[in-house]
Design brief:
With about 240 residues, the chain is of the alpha+beta class. It folds into two domains: about 130 residues, JHP933, nucleotidyltransferase-like core domain (Nuclear Transport Factor 2, Chain: A), CATH 3.10.450.620; about 100 residues, no CATH class. The strands form two sheets. A five-stranded mixed β-sheet has the order 1-2-5-4-3. A two-stranded antiparallel ribbon has the order 6-7. Strand 3 and strand 4 form a beta hairpin. It starts with a helix and ends in a 6-residue tail after the last helix.
C-alpha cells in the first residue's frame, strides 16, 4: 500500500506539471484516476487518461509535449498514433511507470466540467476539466458490459452509491446483473484486494457487489425507449 501512496503522489506531481505548463487547456481528464483524484474513488489507479475538449492536439502539440516532458522527466516510451498520444515516464523509485494517454476522440458537448484534483499524499490541488459523473456512470456501465472487468463493477457501484443515475436500458441492467452474479469470491479477493484499504477489502470479500445488484434489481424498469437513443450518441471512454 505504501507503494501505491507514493505512486499517487507522483501522479499528482505530473498532473500539476501538465497544468503549470498549459498542456491541460485542451484536455478533459477522465478514467479511473479522475474518479480517484477528483471524487475520492476508494481504490488506487495507475494511469492518467485524457480526451480532447477541442481539436487542438495535433503534431505540433505532441512535439511540444514530448520536448517538455523529456526535459523534466525520464521518458521511456512515446507514441503518436491515429487514436491516441502515449507517454511513459520512469519514476525515481523505478517501480510502476507513469502512463499518460491522450485519446484523440472529442468529448461530447456538455459532458465536462471544472473539477479539483487532490490527494492526501500531495500538498497541492490541481484545477482540471473532467467528465461529469453522469457521463462516467454510463461509460462505466458500457465498459462492464463489454469487458466484464471487476474494476469497472467496483467503479460503477461507487458512482451509484454517490447517487448518480444510470442512463442504460433495462436489458443492459439485466446483463450487468448476470455479470455481477458471476464474480467469484476468489476473483474479487485477487483483483480488488491489493488496491483497497483493509476495511473495504473485507467488505467486498464478504458482500461482493450486493449493493449494486440490489439497486439494479429494484430500480424502476421501463426506460428502454428513452435510453436506447441516448446511448447511441455516447461512444468514447
Amino acid at each position: 500500500m505504501e507503494i501505491l501512496i507514493d505512486y499517487e503522489a507522483s501522479l499528482m506531481a505530473v498532473l500539476q506539471w501538465l497544468r503549470s505548463n498549459r498542456f491541460l487547456d485542451s484536455l478533459a481528464f477522465g478514467g479511473d484516476t479522475m474518479l480517484r483524484l477528483c471524487h475520492e474513488l476508494p481504490r488506487y489507479s495507475l494511469h492518467l487518461d485524457f480526451w480532447l475538449i477541442k481539436e487542438e492536439v495535433n503534431e505540433e502539440y505532441y512535439n511540444r509535449l514530448n520536448i517538455a516532458l523529456s526535459h523534466d522527466h525520464n521518458v521511456t516510451d512515446t507514441q503518436n498514433s491515429h487514436s491516441s498520444i502515449l507517454f511513459e515516464l520512469l519514476r525515481e523509485t523505478k517501480i510502476h511507470k507513469i502512463k499518460i494517454e491522450i485519446h484523440k476522440a472529442i468529448a461530447p458537448l456538455g459532458t465536462t466540467e471544472e473539477k479539483i484534483a487532490f490527494s492526501p499524499h500531495f500538498p497541492s490541488q490541481v484545477l482540471v476539466r473532467g467528465f461529469t459523473l453522469g457521463y462516467m456512470s454510463t461509460k462505466k456501465a458500457l465498459a462492464l458490459l463489454e469487458y466484464g472487468e471487476i474494476l469497472d463493477a467496483f467503479d460503477l457501484e461507487f458512482l451509484v452509491r454517490r447517487g448518480v443515475s444510470l442512463d442504460i436500458t433495462d436489458e443492459q441492467k439485466r446483463r450487468i446483473l448476470l455479470i455481477l452474479r458471476g464474480f467469484s469470491k476468489r476473483e474479487i479477493d485477487l483483483k480488488l484486494g491489493s488496491i483497497l484499504q483493509p476495511d473495504l477489502r473485507a467488505y467486498y470479500s464478504q458482500k461482493g457487489f450486493a449493493y449494486l445488484q440490489e439497486k439494479l434489481s429494484f430500480e424502476p424498469w421501463g426506460n428502454e425507449t428513452k435510453n436506447t437513443a441516448s446511448l447511441k450518441n455516447k461512444s468514447i471512454l
